[in-house]
Amino acid sequence: MAETRAHSGGGPTVQRMLVGARLRRLRTDLGLSREEAAAAIRASEWKIHRLENGQVGFKERDIVDLLARYQVRDPAEVAEFLALAKEANVPGWWQHYGDVLPGWFRTYVDLESAASLIRCYEGQFVPGLLQTDAYLRAVVQGAHLAETSEEVGRRVRLRLARQTLLTREHPPRLWAVVDEAALRRPVGGPEVMRGQLERLVEATKLPNVTLQVLPFASGAHSAMVGSFTVLRFPDRELPDVVYLEHLTSALYLDKRAEVERYLDVIELLSVDSEPPARTVEILTGMLDEL
Amino acid sequence: MADDWTTTINTGVPNPARIYDYFLGGKDNFPADREVADQLLAIAPVARDVVEDNRAFLRRAVRYLVGEAGIRQFVDLGSGLPTQGNVHEIAQEVASDARVVYVDNDPMVVTHSRALLAGENTVAIQADLREPAQILQDPEVRELIDLDQPIALLLMAILHFLPDEEDPFGIVAWFRDALPAGSYLALSHGTTDIPERPDMSPEEMAEMGARVERLYQLTTASLVTRTRAQVGRFFDGFELVPPGLTEIQLWRPDGRSSLLPGGFYGGVGRKR
């Protein structure tokens, strides 16, 4: 894989992860412990841990001191590093949606826009990136997530803004496994569902969208615990991130051992689902039955 | 889909396709794969270079086949996990009407290929190299490939997973007889033969090869290296195009391969 940078400015979360990953590599290349590195910036081992995992912002002075400790002396290299760290503090476009966008979801939007591959399993809903306006409105109203119609409207506009990532230049690939149950549930009634299923048929024509249906006939399966998304980034140093959404918060997993449990599950689900070439036929069958 | 709900993949057992993915810097590998891959690198630090050289050889061979040889139909046997520079991407850069069938017996590989590679002029099927008739009779293959027109058969870094008992020579001969005149065979194959090089003696190379073969016993496929003469036998009935059967690094080099030849033989032959 080429070490390309994320194509649409990935936003602060990913920039922090990237800067952190590079700091970690510089340190481990020299065989330094976190404790030894921490001494250079008068901080704790824990601080280094958090910096390297992209969990906190960067102070210029810390970066300068760490780079000196890591024997990075080329002024151009130091300047590039500082510029990258600075980018990590620039807010993303979704800040405009702050009132309907809780902090935990902002992180997701940030990561999603930087991913080169988005793999998800959806057991309840059509994947967010492929939802129609009417379907999303029905979901939002059904879940009583928003009180005013204005808020619903903003939520829908945010979703539509997110969806443009599939048709931007250098788009990510979306590889979604959707449970048959999610496609059969008549969210918003038959007309809304018809529009949604037609939208899915259209989406399969995008070269960067792969949609597989996990049929009822499969019986018990390895993801009955719930929906999840695995985000993969183009940069070799960034680990995959697993995203688990709950009603009021979300969980991000980036520890390799945890992430790999989910990768294992998504591999099994993808193998056991209908192949992508059958998806249109399945969706057409559902449309006929509506 | 699978006929029943038995799991058809096991990420806990090291798997050659995922080991290869790890060497190429991919992220579709699991701890069991990386453990074997790291042991391989400890025994043979050049393994990563050889794997990259093999991708480069594939690229040059496909460019030759679609360019100079004018081939438009490819069957990639043992295609492995999708990576950068897959056969249809290389071929379609030169001729947008080039058609490619990806064949692998590993369900995870086929699932990824179907999700990431399939398109208007590509299909991916699950089949076993040891059942060659099933491959050429597959309805999806028949729909894409015209068996009356020349076909390039690609067997990259795959025949060394078939010991002699599995009759790899008979399998290749079967394909040769089934394909029309003017078809091509392109292959690469692991070897412990060693050209003159300063860093290793033939004895050291043989010892390294034996250790690598033992390590592959832990995976889902065992590895058999072969000599130049043995690899040459796969081309019975084919006419090798220049420069013949060589170390992959020396086959029509474009300056992008590592400099030290060795590890894999490669060649391209035309059916007489």
Q: What does the secondary structure layout of this molecule look like, with pairings?
A:
The complex is a heterodimer of chains A (290) and B (272).
Chain A: H1 12-29, H2 34-40, H3 45-52, H4 60-69, H5 75-87, H6 103-114, E1 117-122, H7 133-142, H8 149-163, E2 173-179, H9 180-184, H10 190-203, E3 209-214, E4 228-232, E5 241-245, E6 250-253, H11 256-272, H12 279-289
Helix pairs in contact in A: 1-5, 2-3, 4-5, 7-8, 10-12
Chain B: H1 16-23, H2 31-43, H3 47-66, E1 73-77, H4 87-94, E2 99-104, H5 107-116, E3 122-126, H6 132-137, H7 139-144, E4 152-156, H8 168-178, E5 184-190, H9 202-216, H10 228-233, E6 238-240, E7 246-247, E8 264-271
Parallel strand pairs in B: 1-2, 1-4, 2-3, 4-5
Antiparallel strand pairs in B: 5-8, 6-8, 7-8
Helix pairs in contact in B: 1-2, 2-9, 3-4
Architecture overview:
The complex is a heterodimer of chains A (290) and B (272). Chain A is α/β, with parallel strands linked by helices and 290 residues long. Chain A has twelve helices and six strands. Chain A is elongated, with a radius of gyration of 21 Å. Chain A starts with 11 loop residues before the first helix and ends with a helix. The model of chain A is unreliable at 1-9 (pLDDT under 50). Chain B is built from ten helices and eight strands. Chain B has helices at residues 16-23, 31-43, 47-66, 87-94, 107-116, 132-137, 139-144, 168-178, 202-216, 228-233, and strands at residues 73-77, 99-104, 122-126, 152-156, 184-190, 238-240, 246-247, 264-271. In chain B, strands 1, 2, 3, 4, 5, 6, 7 and 8 form an eight-stranded mixed beta sheet that branches. The longest helix of chain B has 20 residues, at 47-66. The model of chain B is unreliable at 1-7 (pLDDT under 50). Classes of the chains: A alpha/beta (290), B alpha/beta (272). The interface between A and B is medium-sized, with 29 and 25 residues.
